[in-house]
Amino acid sequence: MKLINLLKSLEAEIADQFEALESFPGAGEIEIKYGFRTVLYFDFFINEKIELTSYSCNQMMMTNEGWVDDPTADDDLITVMEKSFYLLLRERYNELEEKAAEAFIKPITPDEAILGIGFASVADSYKQ
Predict the structure, then answer these.
(1) What is the pTM of this model?
(2) How high is the pLDDT of residue 110?
């Protein structure tokens, strides 16, 4: 599977798991399908200060006994995915933080101001 597809899948999983700023603190895990019976498994913990205190990526494969570490895992791929996980998680947090700031500072249009004080439209406010 190409690296770009893995990164897109990881980005989508992060977006699904973190839909609001409040969802960041705590422990979590993300699985990304990597092959027929193989996944990349991310295990992480984010503290109350929104610091990623621990995280890891493991390549796991399904056997008759259940999920086990894949002995054929590519160390370079794991390293790239761990670093990408950190960067994508930080990017998602910043994106949600910007949206929250924009919602807080949303400018009020003249129509909204007029409606807020009881007029049906701007024209009605001029008639008064």
Answers:
(1) 0.75
(2) 67
